[in-house]
């Protein structure tokens, strides 16, 4: 397998050689999220010869993904990301095994999926997944490569890996509890230049290759900040915190459901349901105020102190991200006593539906 | 005393990198309070401090010419 020249240029590197290449071919790596960070990370990991490469992502390809999610083409809009990614990566390197998990990682499946892999690379796009993946990998003591972006900046770190002193840290040592609803915007709300996750995702792949092969000095217990505009890097030494707990995983927890416009229809003008638009007051298109109650995210904490009478609560926003945050907040309050729904993809995804039902 | 403030992500939008003159502030708890008074948006955010590139987990003394980083969590991908 290694004799065919595919890996020749890296095998001849000083300090790498056939031994390092053999380690790559034996490694099992899971990439969470086949988006802006996941695409470049997957491409370089597949090309480098990681022997068993998993991709988990339940999303479909959208036009607005293509400026940064460079595994996908315009003709593939609407297709499953993990499936398309697996096909493209197999074309790139048919000598490795590539596994697509075409669904979201959640509390019920996280431990089972992660336990098949040696290393996890988190390129997801939301705090819910990031804390879930952190807690699962920390409890399984699996090395976690953390990569994230905000604006023109990136963060990169390696967790759950003991340094020379035997100290291992995780994301909760940095940020013990997740930010509250709407506190930190994501790429959809804040924007992102495509090349930034390209850089950070590629750096994450490099950290993964360093970990597997044992070359260089990986970012163990180190948080690296990268600024695209200035090219500045700033590395911080992470020490263990004390005051946090991990979430219980693999237990059957109450949950909310993500629905499409077809399922939304049954709740319109239905007295058992309240439809809540959590966008800020100035966001367009405006929805019919007789059907949709406007409770902006900025005031949602206050709203949570009031009681909702209806049994079915449907949350709606522009892209289906803030509505998930609102659904989680309501889930914390009501548990299984209400049916809570979030419109997946938001008003942008179902624009035709909202135009037709004005 | 004078310290250097280095901020990241959303925090950098309202609290730019700067040299900060401090009077009567000796540790990171007092600095946190001072910054949250001066920049109220900070008080509603999760963030972590690092003094001279070391993460602050317990109240830490600050000395003249220290550099203090202020970091929010990033989640984008």
Automatic annotation (TrEMBL), chain B:
<dbReference type="InterPro" id="IPR012675">
    <property type="entry name" value="Beta-grasp_dom_sf"/>
</dbReference>
<protein>
    <submittedName>
        <fullName>MoaD/ThiS family protein</fullName>
    </submittedName>
</protein>
<dbReference type="InterPro" id="IPR016155">
    <property type="entry name" value="Mopterin_synth/thiamin_S_b"/>
</dbReference>
<dbReference type="InterPro" id="IPR003749">
    <property type="entry name" value="ThiS/MoaD-like"/>
</dbReference>
<dbReference type="Pfam" id="PF02597">
    <property type="entry name" value="ThiS"/>
</dbReference>
């Amino acid at each position: 397998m290694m004799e065919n020249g595919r890996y020749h240029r890296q095998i001849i590197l000083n300090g790498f050689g056939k031994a390092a290449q053999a380690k790559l071919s034996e490694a099992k790596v899971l990439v969470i999220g086949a988006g802006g960070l996941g695409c470049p990370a997957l491409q370089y990991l597949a090309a480098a010869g990681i022997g068993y490469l998993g991709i988990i992502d339940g999303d479909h390809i959208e036009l607005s993904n293509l400026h940064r999610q460079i595994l996908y083409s315009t003709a593939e809009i609407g297709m499953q990301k993990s499936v398309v990614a697996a096909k493209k990566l197999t074309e790139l390197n048919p000598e490795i095994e590539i596994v697509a998990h075409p669904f979201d990682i959640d509390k019920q499946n996280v431990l089972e999926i992660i336990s098949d892999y040696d290393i996890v690379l988190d390129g997801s796009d939301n705090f819910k997944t990031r804390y879930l993946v952190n807690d699962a990998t920390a409890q399984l003591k699996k090395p976690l490569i953390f990569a994230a972006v905000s604006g023109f900046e990136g963060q990169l770190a390696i967790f759950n890996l003991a340094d020379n002193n035997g100290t291992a840290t995780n994301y909760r040592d940095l940020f013990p509890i997740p930010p509250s609803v709407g506190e930190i915007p994501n790429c959809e709300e804040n924007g992102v230049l495509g090349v930034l996750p390209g850089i950070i995702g590629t750096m994450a792949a490099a950290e993964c290759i360093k970990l597997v092969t044992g070359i260089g000095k990986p970012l163990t217990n180190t948080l690296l900040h990268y600024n695209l505009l200035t090219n500045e890097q700033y590395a911080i030494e992470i020490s263990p915190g004390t005051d946090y707990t991990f979430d219980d995983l693999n237990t059957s927890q109450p949950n909310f459901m993500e629905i499409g416009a077809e399922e939304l229809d049954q709740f319109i003008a239905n007295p058992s349901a309240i439809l809540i638009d959590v966008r800020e007051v100035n966001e367009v298109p405006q929805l019919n105020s007789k059907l949709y109650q406007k409770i902006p995210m900025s005031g949602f904490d206050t709203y949570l102190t009031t009681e909702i009478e209806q049994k079915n609560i449907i949350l709606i926003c522009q892209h289906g991200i803030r509505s998930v945050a609102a659904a989680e907040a309501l889930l914390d309050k009501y548990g299984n006593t209400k049916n809570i729904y979030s419109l997946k993809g938001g008003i942008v995804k179902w624009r035709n539906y909202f135009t037709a039902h004005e | 005393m004078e310290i250097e403030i280095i901020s990241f992500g959303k925090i950098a939008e309202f609290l730019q990198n700067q040299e900060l003159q401090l009077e009567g502030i000796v540790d990171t708890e007092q600095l946190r309070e001072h910054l949250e008074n001066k920049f109220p948006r900070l008080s509603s955010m999760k963030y972590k401090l690092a003094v001279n590139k070391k993460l602050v987990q317990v109240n830490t003394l600050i000395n003249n010419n220290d550099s203090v980083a202020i970091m929010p969590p990033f989640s984008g991908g």
